[in-house]
Structure formats: C-alpha cells, structure tokens
Amino acid sequence: MKLPIEQFRNVVRDTVLVSLDLLIVNERQDILVGRRRNSPAKGCLFVPGGRVYKGETPGKALARISREELGVELRSENATLHGIFHHHFRDNSFGDPEIGTTEYIAIACLFRLSSQEAFRPDSQHDRLHFVPIHDVLTHPEIHEFTKNYFVECPPNAFLDTARQPLLKEQG
Fold it and tell me: Over the range 37-74, which residues count as b (16 or more CB within 10 Å of their CB) and which as e?
C-alpha cells in the first residue's frame, strides 16, 4: 500500500524504511546505474531500487520496482541475495530539515542479465547505463552506498557477507 504523502513524511521522520536494491550485472561485468533526480542521493549514480510497501511481499515489491524503474519485470527466482545493508542518508526526499535523515535497510538483490535488455529509466533517474565493475570504486559520481556493494568488508553491511555455509559438505 503506497501511503498518502503526509503519512509518508511521518514514516520517513519516525522509522527505518525497507528497500530492495537491484544489482544488475551484464555479461561484460558491468553494473547498471542511474543518476538520481530526487533526494536522497540526488545527482549521484546509484543502482535502481525502491521501498517495500506494507502488505506487499518482497517478491511482489521486486516485480513492481523493476517494472516501474526499469520497464522490465524481474523475478526473485532469478536473483541471488548479495546482502543486507544499512543506508543512512543525511537528507530526505522532502527537503525538510525537521524530518532529518532517511534510513533504509536495503536488501541487495543480484541479477546477472544480458546488456541487451531494454531498460528504460523512470522519473527518478535521468538515464540508466552500465559502468564496468572495475571502475565503480574510483568513479567520482557513484554514491558510496553503491560502492559498498563491491568492497570486501562494507562498513554498512548487516552480518558478515562471507558467512559459512549452513551445511558443510560431507567428505
């Protein structure tokens, strides 16, 4: 359920949002990013993504977010969990200092797709394009939270991303 704007203002002020970030990697090892038109992260290159609405399963949120932000519908069975991250932005989409910061628990979903997919940007992005993964960490326009998806020990990761498997192989 998408909230009316005044209710959403209160949510941003009072709670932590849950979002899905879409890490779309093509066969050349490039990552899809878009220049953000809105705060938070306005003007920066960031991976596509969006918040999960109340009453919406993560799978339905993934389909909605990818359809709205990319023009294609992604499915959870084609994703790999890349990790869970805490994003704490210093601003908010309302530009209201009384609301303060915006916080997300971002579930990073990794997709390996063809660069031939016909992605189209939504109103939140100037354009979408692929950037070579090996350039992400040094790219001056890519937001630090997107860069954190490509470092060994990201400072905003929840739990250790190099966890042991649940079942050890029998040998």
Answer: eeebbeebbbbbbbbbeeebeeeebbbbbbeebbeeeb
Q: How confident is the model over 111-156, as pLDDT tens digits?
A: 998 767 788 878 888 889 999 999 999 999 999 999 999 998 899 9
Residue 168 covered by a domain: no
Q: What is the mean pLDDT of residues 27-38?
A: 94
Residue 135 domain flag: yes
Does any domain span residue 107?
A: yes
Q: Check if the beta carbon of residue 33 is closer than 8 Å to that of residue 129.
A: yes
Which CATH number characterizes residue 138's domain?
A: 3.90.79.10
Distance CA 86, CA 56 (A): 21
In which domain, by residue range, is 11 found? 5-158
pTM, 2 dp: 0.88
Is residue 58 within 8 A of residue 22, CB to CB? The reply is: no
d(CA 110, CA 105): 16
Domains: count for the chain: 1
